Amino acid sequence: MEKIKIRTEKENLHTRNQHRLGYDFDDLIQCCSDLNNFVFVNQYQTKTIDFSNPEAVKLLNKALLVSKYDIPNWDIPTDYLCPPIPGRADYVHYIADLLAESNDGIIPKGETIQGLDIGIGANCIYPIIGNTTYGWSFVGTEIDEKAIQNCKKIIENNPKLIDFISLQLQTETRFIFKNIITPEDKFAFTICNPPFHASAIEAAKANLRKTNNLETTKTNQPLLNFGGQNSELWCEGGEILFLTEMIYESAKFPLNCFWFTTLVSKKENLKSIYKTLQKVNAVAVKTIDMAQGQKTSRFVAWTFLSENQQKSWKF
Asked: What is the mean pLDDT of residues 25-49?
């Protein structure tokens, strides 16, 4: 009988990330028995799954949400984005660090800390992680009604989430914060996984590269292992136009949010992002690097609050 190697720590993940030791497939199969059909021992004598298989990835997520976050009832419709949970968790943990910097080094916890998830998708992952880890409450926005309905189903099927996550359909797709943020709102942060590509063709090409990186045999057919609808993967003008519009619109709500944040997939977009943030007179801008899967990702955070306003903000 071949010996299975012990899992090694993923030191590139955040120190509080529950997934630093990789996947314990024996434990995960106990949480989701269907996952067993997709687990195999690879050439390095390590248990794994085929990450280019959409069903395998979804079942892995279901098992992780049970095992690590006590969310027993989670599912997404076919062809919707199925996010890699360890990377999403990193974003949440680094936001917690960002909030702690303005709270005497203490991570603020509890439902009074409210986050705004721009483009919650059908998966509800950021609010689930943020609430179960830090007790935060969330408003999740989306332009896709089917995605919103699935998030509603997830929340209803996991009653512990009901009082902490609310959903709002953005009825005007050209806006991001308008119609969502009210004059009374005080969000500690926004969080966003923007559409990275400028067209369906560009998204398909990127997915083909990812699929070939994951598989040992090459293919000419992109396989949406993490899924994704058009609004999740691409928009006219791509990531840079979306983020430019987000920045300009955020300037209209300077006192309603402490930190506006967003993932930035393409490093070459940072220069333009910084220039736009300078134009709208952002008081402080931070870029936090993260290791997400096979690549380094990052998110940019900015605030319009003066130093005195930051100090007086009640977490």
From this structure: 95
pTM recorded for the entire structure: 0.87
The answer to whether 181 touches 256, Cβ cutoff 8 Å, is yes
pLDDT of 218 reads 52
**Which residues, 6+ apart, have CB-to-CB distance to 102 below 8 Å?**
258, 310, 311, 313, 315
Burial track 187-217 (b if 16+ CB lie within 10 A, e otherwise): bbbbbbbbbbbbeeeebeebbbebbbeeeee
Average pLDDT of the segment spanning 275-302: 91
- In sequence order, which residues have a C-beta less than 8 Å from that of residue 113 and are 6 or more positions away? 99, 134, 135, 136, 137, 188, 315
Confidence of residue 296 (pLDDT cuts 50, 70, 90): confident
- Spatial neighbors of 226 by CB under 8 A, at least 6 apart, are 54, 57, 81, 82, 83, 84
d(CA 14, CA 9): 11
What is the predicted pLDDT for the residue at 10?
Answer: 78
Secondary structure in 3-state letters for the chain: CCCCCCCCCCCCCCCCCCCCCCCCHHHHHHHCHHHHHHCEECCCCCEECCCCCHHHHHHHHHHHHHHHHCCCCCCCCCCCCCCCHHHHHHHHHHHHHHHHHCCCCCCCCCCCCEEEEECCCCCCHHHHHHHHHHCCEEEEEECCHHHHHHHHHHHHHCHHHCCCEEEEECCCCCCCCCCCCCCCCCEEEEEECCCCECCHHHHHHHHHHHHHHHCCCCCCCCCCCCCCCHHHHECCCHHHHHHHHHHHHHCCCCCCEEEEEEECCCHHHHHHHHHHHHHCCCCEEEEEEEEECCEEEEEEEEECCCHHHHHHCCC
Pairing of strands 165-169, 137-142: parallel
pLDDT in tens, 133-163: 999 999 999 999 999 999 999 999 999 999 9
